[in-house]
């Protein structure tokens, strides 16, 4: 392991895996937040889209990292990335120029067996994902509830509503949260007048994703339902891996100096 690269050799085959950093088991939620998520808040206010994924085996702390053990208080050391992001976002918005208007919205969905469910509508309405016709390479979730929020407490209440919905369904169909992916989105729209008097609107989103447990890959289990679940998790995580690899390669390619 050298220069932020892990080299795995198996016979003649060598694979290299790059990484930006590693946190030890003693690392606090605050340290993880400050190092990984905090820099993204300014980016979303500036109109960029950013994503944070929690990936790993069941029981390794994905949900703990993203949400924490308690969401009724921001004082607890266990408070996760989602409540910390919301709190930080409202603090930053309070600090920026008062001439800039802003609106913050949240949505919370889960993807289970290729089906997308809205966790904020009560009863978990099924919604559809499709390619965004106005923004090439981007997707829209049609009909998803986007709740406007004014305080971090409201964000945490909605988080609780969504988690309760996720819990109810998982009990009903005898599955666990680890078999679905959940995506909590914080959207911020800012509006300001330029010196020329034009209205400048920026829309930024922070996607906070708690992925299904990766150990489901290859374990089809005995029932047809488990086999379908494992197949879908396998397919979605593999596709995600390919997309991230392609994006990283594209970034490297674009950063390479080109001949004049
Ligand atoms: N850093 C940590 N400090 C204290 N407790 C933790 C930590 N990480 C995880 N835990 C505890 O370990 C247990 C399992 O964690 P968690 O549910 O977050 O795992 P997970 O990866 O999301 O699992 P699943 O894939 O099943 O959803 C929970 O009781 C959680 O509170």
TrEMBL record:
The GO cellular component terms are: mitotic spindle; nucleus; spindle microtubule
* One GO term of the biological process aspect: spindle elongation
Coiled-coil intervals in this record? none
Q: Which residues form the Kinesin motor domain?
A: 1-260
Recite the UniProt keywords alphabetically. Answer: ATP-binding, Cytoplasm, Cytoskeleton, Microtubule, Motor protein, Nucleotide-binding
Please list every transmembrane segment annotated in the UniProt record, as residue ranges. Answer: none
* SUPFAM superfamilies linked to this entry: P-loop containing nucleoside triphosphate hydrolases (SSF52540)
The family database entries (PROSITE patterns) matched by this protein are listed as:
KINESIN_MOTOR_1, KINESIN_MOTOR_2
The entry's localization annotation reads: Cytoplasm, Cytoskeleton
**Any keyword Manganese?**
no
Q: Which GO terms describe its molecular function?
A: ATP binding; microtubule binding; plus-end-directed microtubule motor activity
| Residues involved in ATP binding | 56-63
Q: Could you confirm whether the keyword Nucleus appears in this record? A: no
**Which PANTHER family does this chain map to?**
KINESIN FAMILY MEMBER 11 (PTHR47970:SF12), KINESIN-LIKE PROTEIN KIF11 (PTHR47970)
**UniProt family annotation:** Belongs to the TRAFAC class myosin-kinesin ATPase superfamily. Kinesin family.
Instruction: From the Swiss-Prot or TrEMBL record, give the protein name.
Output: Kinesin-like protein
């Amino acid at each position: 392991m050298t220069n932020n690269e892990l080299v795995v050799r198996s016979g003649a085959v060598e694979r290299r895996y790059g990484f930006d950093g590693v946190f030890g088991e003693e690392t606090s939620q605050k340290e993880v937040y400050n190092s990984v998520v905090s820099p993204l808040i300014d980016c979303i206010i500036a109109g960029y889209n950013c994503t944070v994924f929690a990936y790993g085996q069941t029981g390794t702390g994905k949900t703990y990292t993203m949400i924490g053990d308690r969401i009724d208080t921001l004082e607890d050391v266990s408070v996760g990335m989602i409540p910390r992001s919301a709190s930080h976002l409202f603090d930053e918005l309070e600090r920026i120029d008062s001439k800039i208007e802003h609106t913050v919205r949240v949505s919370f969905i889960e993807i289970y067996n290729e089906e997308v469910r809205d966790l904020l509508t009560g009863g978990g309405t099924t919604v559809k994902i499709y390619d965004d016709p106005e923004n090439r390479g981007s997707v829209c979730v049609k009909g998803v509830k986007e709740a406007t929020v004014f305080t971090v407490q409201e964000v945490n209440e909605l988080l609780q509503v969504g988690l309760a919905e996720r819990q109810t369904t998982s009990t009903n169909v005898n599955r666990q949260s680890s078999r679905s992916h959940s995506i909590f989105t914080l959207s911020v729209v800012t509006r300001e007048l330029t010196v020329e008097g034009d209205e400048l609107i920026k829309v930024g989103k922070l996607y906070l994703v708690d992925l299904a447990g990766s150990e489901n890959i290859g374990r089809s289990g005995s029932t047809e339902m488990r086999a379908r679940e494992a197949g879908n998790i396998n397919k979605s995580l593999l596709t995600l891996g390919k997309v991230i690899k392609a994006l990283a390669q594209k970034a490297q390619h674009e950063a390479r100096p080109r001949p004049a």
